[in-house]
Structure formats: C-alpha cells, structure tokens
Specification:
This protein is mostly helical and 338 residues long. The protein has one domain. The chain is 78% helix and 0% strand. Helix 2 runs parallel beside helix 11 and helix 11 packs antiparallel against helix 12. The two termini are 31 Å apart.
Length: 338
C-alpha cells in the first residue's frame, strides 16, 4: 500500500504549477466545487421526487441504487480496465476485482463500502420517510461535523476555536430539524427514520472523503474503485433476488424512460461527474474545507423543495437551515483564515 500511495502522490504532484488540462489547480478546485454543489442540490430534489411513495414513483430505493451503480459502471469499469492495463504495462500490479479497480483490494473495499454501497442504500431509503427539506439540512449540514470528527481520529487534524463554534451551530440546526421529527415519533410519525438515515448517509460520505485524503487518492481512480466495489457487491445479487421474486423490485418491469433517466442521472451525474468533482475538491481544499464549501447546498435544495416540490417550510426547518448554513460558512471563513 505504501508503494501505491507514493506512486499516486508522485503522479498527482508531477506538475504542481500547471496540470495536464492547462488550468491552474485553483481553477480546477473551484470548478469542481461548483459542479459538486449543483449536482448535490439536484440530487436531493430528484431523489425525493423519485423515492417518495406519495408521488407515485415506480422504482423503489433499491431500484434507484441499482440504476445508480449500473449507470456508473457502464463508464467507469471500462475506464478502470484501461487504467489497470496501463499500470501493469509499467510494472504496477496493484489492481483488484478482475482488473477493474485500479486500487489495491483493501483501499477499494474501504472507500467502496462507505462512498458507494452504504451511502446510496441509506440515502435513497431516507427519502421514503422524510421530505427533501429535511435532507437539505441533515445531509450536507451534518457532513462537516462527521468529517471533522473523523479527520481528528484518522488524520490527526487540528480544530480551531472558530471551527468548533461553527460545528456547534450545525449541531443546533440539526437538532431543530431532527429533534422535532423525533418528538413526533411518539405520535406515530415516521419522518424521524428518514432524518436518522440522512445523518448516517452523511457519516458514510464523510468517511469516504477522509479516507480519500488519508490515502492521497487520485479522483478518477477513487471513483472507479468505489463504483467497481458497489457493482460487484450489489448489482448481481440484487438482480438475482428481483428476478427470483425474493425481493419486490421493479427495475426490470418499470417504464424504460424512468429507468433510463435514473441510470443516466444517478449513475453518470451523481457518481461519475460528482464523484470525480468532489474528490478533486478534496485534493485542493482538503476534506474539512471541502465539506464546508457545500454551504450553498442546504439553501439551494431547500428553496427547490419549496418551489418545485411544494413542501412547506415550517419555522423549525427555517431556523435549522439558517443555523446550519451559518455554521458551515463560519467554518469556511475560519479555514480560509488559517
């Protein structure tokens, strides 16, 4: 693993002042942040509209996860095989999963489990129970909190007093949203289940972001490895369960336009483009500041949920959204100063 890490780091830093693309590292980092924010915002709105049973969607959360993994695999697995052949020609034999993941087995399993399989399954199931407004606050909102805690543990990162204050505001905002749902659980409500799943999904993505930084992973290789693990661990098994009737999935009988849309958007957009963009953002800004740059996501997705999905913006949701956004912006400002 140490050999692979040094080789990847050497490749990443071989042209520090001017990447192969011709753009400066700052330009690439900012562009990656913009693309990531836009895709994350639309992801929350589309996932809720697709998984909400009240909106008459045909596909189940597991069907959508299937489309996500299959769509991404159509692009990334052939790409991974090409990279592996190129690496082997140079005498680098650290591939796994039938030569489709360009990273070692242990790293592929770790980042694939958290950044691919668990994140997708947990997040999509959360949208069955809770509205997009809750996801707007709890998923990108709790991401800096989880990332900071994991960075303290795995990266021995330092946390300034200003960042601690920002994290406190984020926690208060999350409590304003999730706390109200938890209280309604005693009245028979189920929104709290979605809130809990959103928090768990954010923790999985935070683990992926910290692992990517810890192992100095290249953006493309990391995204390919995540997709390869998710594909082999889920797609064949889920196909078998659905076709045998053991699981009530609809991915093979749903309208082809719906399946195609989910495959293209969830697979190509949310995984390929967003995954590479997020990892590029980590390379330039670091894991904690990268997650804090997503400060625009809660506000934009909440606005979209109100305008496009017709969701009501109650006072506790508005207060939680404000606290989370201020907390994230506070952390970004502290990170820039440092």
């Amino acid at each position: 693993m140490g050999l692979v890490r040094s080789q990847i780091m050497a490749a990443m830093h071989s042209t520090p002042s001017l990447p192969v693309s011709g753009f400066s590292p700052r330009t690439v980092g900012l562009a990656a942040a913009l693309v990531t924010v836009l895709i994350w915002t639309s992801f929350i709105l589309i996932a809720r509209a697709s998984a909400d049973p009240a909106r008459g969607g045909t596909l189940t959360p597991f069907d959508i996860a299937f489309c996500r993994m299959l769509g991404a695999s159509l692009i990334l697995l052939p790409w991974g095989a090409t990279l592996v052949r190129r690496d082997r020609a140079r005498g680098l034999g650290q591939a796994c999963l039938l030569g489709l993941s360009p990273l070692p087995w242990r790293v592929t399993c770790m980042i694939g489990l958290f950044g691919g399989l668990l994140y997708a399954l947990i997040a999509y199931n959360g949208f069955v129970f809770a509205p997009a407004l809750h996801a707007s606050v709890l998923m990108p909102g709790s991401l800096p909190l989880w990332t900071t805690l994991l960075a303290l543990w795995l990266l021995k990162d330092r946390v300034t007093a200003a960042r601690v204050l920002g994290l406190i505001l984020i926690v208060l905002g999350d409590l304003m949203v999730g706390g109200a749902s938890l209280l309604r659980a005693f009245e028979g409500g189920s929104v709290w289940k979605g809130d809990l799943l959103f928090m768990l999904a954010a923790s999985c993505w935070a683990m992926y972001s910290v692992l990517a930084r810890r192992h100095s992973l290249d953006a493309v290789r990391a995204t390919i490895a995540v997709t390869a693990f998710a594909f082999f661990s889920f797609v064949p098994l889920y196909s078998l369960l659905v076709l045998s009737g053991a699981v009530a999935g609809h991915v093979f009988v749903a309208p082809w336009r719906e399946v195609l849309f989910q495959t293209l958007y969830q697979g190509w957009g949310s995984v390929v483009i967003s995954g590479i963009g997020f990892t590029k953002m980590i390379q330039y800004f670091g894991p904690v500041r990268s997650t804090m740059i997503t400060a625009l996501v809660p506000g934009l997705s909440a606005l979209g949920a109100v305008l496009l999905l017709g969701e009501p913006l109650h006072w506790n949701l508005a207060a939680g959204l404000a606290l989370v956004t201020i907390g994230i912006l506070f952390g970004v400002r502290a990170g820039v100063r440092r």
